[in-house]
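Annex B. Sample input.
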Amino acid sequence: MTELNNKSLVSAAKSIDMISCRAMESFGGAESFEKELAVAVAVQELRAALTPEVMQPIMALMNTSLGFKTDQDPKRPSASNPAPTPYSVDVVREVFIESRLRGFHMVGNEVNIIAGNFYGTAAGFERKVKQNHKVANFKETYEVPRSVGDRGATVKCKAEWSQQDASGKFVPQSLEREFAIRVNSGMGADAVTGKAKRKLLAAVFGQLTGMITPEGDSADTLPIEAKAEQVAAPGAGLFARPAAAAAPVASADEVPMNGPTPLADKPGEKLVSMFDIANDLAQSLNTNGVSFDEFRTFIGVKNIAKNTDSWASFEDVPLSVWTALKNAPKTMAELVKKFGKPFPKTAAQ
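Annex B, continued. Sample output.
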């Protein structure tokens, strides 16, 4: 990039910042038609300022950890999307404009693009909440996820902070919610809690500012009235851990790659939790004297899963592996016969 281009981009960036700051003031409280017009004019000005030359470095940030991620990453094909097509300049430009008006950055994974739309991530909400000058001593806690059928979970969360009032005094505040989370294939308890973290921070941000930010990934939700079963009581089971140990939670959002998963079970079909099945199978292995290292080696040799070296404990084993073992009792029996004591027939059923 030439020095002339650098100067041109710096000048354009300053102009975009000025337009964005002016628009954010109106967007945050567009209760009058005058402010709505101000936002509309600012959007037009931003579209004009975001020329192909200016958009070029922004496009270079797409699908990178330092920039922003999307559900159309050519490096991450899936069964439902075997040949992802990167988003066009026009789509990214509109998301960039929305991110500016909402106060999110296109770096640091604060923004995802999902189904062509803006999606504010946990990283973005965390910065906006914790850097709010009226907020102090912010902390969050999460209970152990509770499974809902075999495709969902609920997580009870609580945020506490001190908020500056009109007199300048910091007053204790709190927000407590139970969120319904869609569980994708291979997600562990940490990933489930990570999605709940994003929802909690978005709710706190909404309470602080009165602004509602779109969810983006509507498939994240499921009917919360479904019967919830605890994934694991503290002190027992695959996902067992004291509630306090559930934090810190990964703040980076995982862009859904496989499209929405149907949540409805067949009429009259009993909901079966894969979390519970995983717990039962892992406990059966422990009972029969099979160590985690032996289990991991067996799974790798049998080519049941890849990247097994990244697993540190049974908790890291994807639910897809437990599903495969549940449907292959002979494989489970072979595993125990090779490394453990005689395998109880009932445990393999």
